[in-house]
User: What shape does this take?
Amino acid sequence: MSASAASRSHLVLIPSYNTGPQVYETVRAARAHWAPVWVVVDGSTDGTREGLEGMARGDPQLRVLALARNSGKGAALLHALGEAAAAGFTHALTMDADGQHPPESIPAFMQASMRAPGALVLGVPQFDASAPALRVKGRRISNWWANLETLWAGIGDSLFGFRVYPLQPLLEVMRGRRWMRRFDFDPEAAVRLVWRGLAPLNLPAPVRYLRPEEGGVSHFHYWRDNALLTWMHVRLMVGFVLRLPRLALRRLRPSPR
Assistant: This one.
C-alpha cells in the first residue's frame, strides 16, 4: 500500500514526549510509507505539539492527539488505541518518535499483520555499532523472563516497541489493570497477549541509535525503569504460575497444519 492510499484497518501510532525536532523527521518518514499516521503528544513542553498540529493541517492522513500532561508511553497509547478502535481501525503499528525504529519496515510489518490478523507481529531489533552495549546486553534479561512467563511461546524481543497489535485484545488487556502505563508497556503487553492466545510473529527490524548531536533523545532512566521492569516481572510471574497448567496444555496441543 502506498502512503497516499489510506488503510481503513491498520494505522501507525507514534507516542512522543519532548523528542524535539526529531519527531518531525520520524513522522515524515512514517507518512512516506503509510497512511494514516497518528501522533500522540504525551504532555510535551518542547513546542512540538504546535509544530505537529501545523503539519497535520496540511496532511489529511496525519492526526495529532495531545494529552495535557505527561502520563507515560502506555497511557498515551491507550488513549490513542481507544480513539482508533472507535474510528473503526482493527490494528495499530507502534513506533517510537526518537528515530530508532525503521519507517521503511512499516509496509512489510503491516502486510504480515494483514496475512495473519490474529497474530502479534513483533520486531526483533538488529543492532549496529551505534547501540549502547549496556542496553543490548541488559534486554536479554527481560527477554529471558518474558519467554519463561509464556513458557517459551516465541517472543523474539519483549522490549522493542516496533510492532503491530490487534487493537481489541490489547484494549481489553490494558483496561483490565492499572499498570502497563509507562516503560513497562511493551514487555507486559507482549506477555499478556500471548497468554490470551495470540501467536507471536517475529520479524527483523534494524535499529539506529542517534547521538545527541544528531538529535537523539532518550528518556530511559536506568534505576527507575529497571525497578519498574523488575516489579512488572514479579507480577507476571505470579500470573504465570496461575496460568501454568493452561499454558502447558497449549504447548502440548499439536499445531494446526
The chain has a mean pLDDT of 90. Residues 39 and 64 are 5 Å apart (CA to CA).
